[in-house]
Amino acid sequence: MFPDITGALKSSMPNLRGKLEANAPTAPLSWFRTGGPAQVLFSPADAEDLGYFLSRLDPAMPVLVVGLGSNLLIRDGGWAGVMIRLGKAFSEITSLPGYRIRAGAGAPDVKVARVAADAGISGLSFLRGIPGTIGGALRMNGGAYGGETKDVLVEAVGLTRRGERVSFSNQQMGFSYRHTGVPDDVIFTEALFQGKPGDPETILGEMNAITEARSSTQPVNTRTGGSTFKNPPGLKAWELVDKAGCRGLRIGDAQVSEMHCNFLINHGAATATDIENLGEDVRRRVRETSGVELDWEIKRVGQALA
C-alpha cells in the first residue's frame, strides 16, 4: 500500500471533475490480470479535465496512461505515482467526409475498424488485428496483417505534462517499427485517420479473415499480453523462441504459448514476477542459441516486490 495522496491532489485541484482512487487494484486493468496497486488511479471526465489535472500536478510525479492493458505488465509492487485510465470519454469514433475517421485515444482499435467498414472506408482493416486502443497504436505505431498506424494517420492530438494541447502531423510523429518519436510524457487524446473508398461488405470480409487468422494462430482467449518480443530486423521473434526450445516453457502458472511462442500466458495464478522472469529466461536462451538479443514489446512498468 502506498501513502494516500488523493486528498492533497483534490485540495490542489478544486475544479477537478474526474475520479481519483487511492491504492487502486491494477490487475483488472491488464490482460495478464496481474500487478500491484496504483498509488492513484485517475479517470478524467474528458480531455479538458485531463488538461486541468496535468496543469496542477507536480511535474515530478510519475504518470502512466492505461488503455485496455493488452500490452502491459504491471509489476507486483505496483505503480508509485498516478495511473491515468482513458475511459468512455475518450472512446468516441466519428466518420467524416473525405473517407476520414476521428477516434479518441481510448477507442478500441477493433471498433475503429468496424466504424470505418460500416462507412465504406477501406485501409483501416488491419486495426482489427490489434487488441488495444488508439492511444497505444499511436505510441507504438501499432500494426498487424500488412498495415501500420503510420500508413493511415493524418494527425494525432495530445496533452503535455503541463496540460497544453499539442498536435502532430504524420511526419512529426517520427514513426518507426513499434515506436514513435513523440516525447514519452505526451498523452495522446485523439487521432485523425485517412482511408480510401471501399465496399462495406468487402471490408468486413477482410476483417473476418483477420479474426479467423488470429483465432487459429494466437491464444486470443487467454490471459496474455499479445506479442511479447519485437521482431529483430529480418527475423521473426517466434521462430527464434521456438528454435531455442522455449515453446511450452513454464515458470509456475506462466507459460510460453504452445500455439504461438511469441505469446506468454497466465494460466491463473502467475505473478507479474513469474511472467517477467519467464520472458527473461526466453531472452537468455535465444541469445545463447542464436546470438540475437530480443527486445520486449510488452511494456513492463512499476516496481517489483522487495
How far apart the termini lie comes to 13 Å
CATH architecture of the largest domain: 2-Layer Sandwich
Content-based structural category: alpha+beta
Low-pLDDT stretches are none
Q: How many H/I helices?
A: 7
Number of E-state strands: 19
Average residue pLDDT? 96
Largest sheet: 5 strands, antiparallel
Described by the principal axes of the CA atoms, the overall outline is globular
User: What is the count of structural domains?
Assistant: 3
Family: Belongs to the MurB family.
Cofactor: FAD
Subcellular location: Cytoplasm
GO molecular function: FAD binding; UDP-N-acetylmuramate dehydrogenase activity
Description:
This protein is an alpha+beta fold and 306 residues long. It has 3 domains: 6-88, Uridine Diphospho-n-acetylenolpyruvylglucosamine Reductase, domain 2, CATH 3.30.43; 92-216, Uridine Diphospho-n-acetylenolpyruvylglucosamine Reductase, domain 3 (2-Layer Sandwich), CATH 3.30.465.10; 219-301, UDP-N-acetylenolpyruvoylglucosamine reductase, C-terminal domain (Uridine Diphospho-n-acetylenolpyruvylglucosamine Reductase, domain 1). It has helices at residues 6-12, 47-56, 109-118, 134-140, 200-217, 237-243, 272-290; strands spanning 19-24, 38-43, 63-66, 72-74, 79-85, 93-96, 100-104, 121-122, 143-144, 147-148, 153-159, 165-169, 187-194, 196-197, 223-224, 250-251, 254-256, 264-266, 299-301. The strands form 6 sheets. It has a 5-stranded antiparallel β-sheet. Helix 3 (109-118) packs antiparallel against helix 5. The longest helix has 19 residues, at 272-290. The mean pLDDT is 96.
